[in-house]
Amino acid sequence: MFFIKYLRTLGFSAANDIFADNAWYFRNALVRANYTNLQKNIHETTEYLEAFLRNLLLNENNELHNRNLHISGFLNDEKRTSEV
Q1: 3-class SS at 54?
Q2: Residue 36 to residue 4: CA distance in whole angstroms
Q3: What is the pTM of this model?
Q4: What are the tens digits of pLDDT across the range 71-83?
Q5: How many domains does the chain have?
Q6: Domain of 40, in residue numbers
Q7: How many Å apart are CA 1 and CA 20, to the nearest integer?
Q8: Whether the predicted pLDDT of 1 surpasses 80
Q9: In this structure, is residue 3 part of a structural domain?
Q10: Ramachandran category for residue 73: left, alpha or beta (phi over 0 → left; psi -120 to 50 → alpha)
Q11: Does a structural domain hold residue 8?
Q12: Which residue has the higher pLDDT, 78 or 10?
């Protein structure tokens, strides 16, 4: 993957394991980092991509669940009400 090669040129020791184990999450995190729908009050957010990268680069242990990336539906509504 080009991203791993790029990180290695910057001096990071990046392995393919986290990408292999979380490929779908990484893809969805990239989408969320770039998706905006103003009519539905949905704004881009990098928080999920940052969690992935913190795990990769800083050896953190953030939970990477696709259900957390849902924009609409029961899971997202439940998350919003628990944050209020």
Answers
A1: helix
A2: 27
A3: 0.76
A4: 865 444 555 556 5
A5: 1
A6: 15-83
A7: 10
A8: no
A9: no
A10: left
A11: no
A12: 10
The amino acid present at 14, given as its one-letter code, is A
Q: How far apart are CA 49 and CA 29, in angstroms?
A: 5
CA-based end-to-end distance of the chain: 39
| Long-range CB pairs of 62-67, under 8 A, 24+ apart, other chains included | 64/22, 64/25, 65/25, 66/24, 66/25, 66/28
Per the CB < 8 A criterion, the answer to whether 23 and 73 are in contact is: no
Cβ contacts of 43 within 8 Å, gap of 6 or more? 36
Partner residues linked to 42 by β-bridges: 37
Rounded to the nearest 10 degrees, how much is the dihedral formed by the CA atoms of 75, 78, 79, 83? 180
Backbone CA torsion sign across 47, 18, 57, 61: positive
The model's pLDDT over 17-65, given as tens digits with 9 standing for 90+, comes to 888 999 999 999 999 999 999 998 899 999 999 999 999 999 999 999 9
Is 84 a residue whose pLDDT tops 60? no
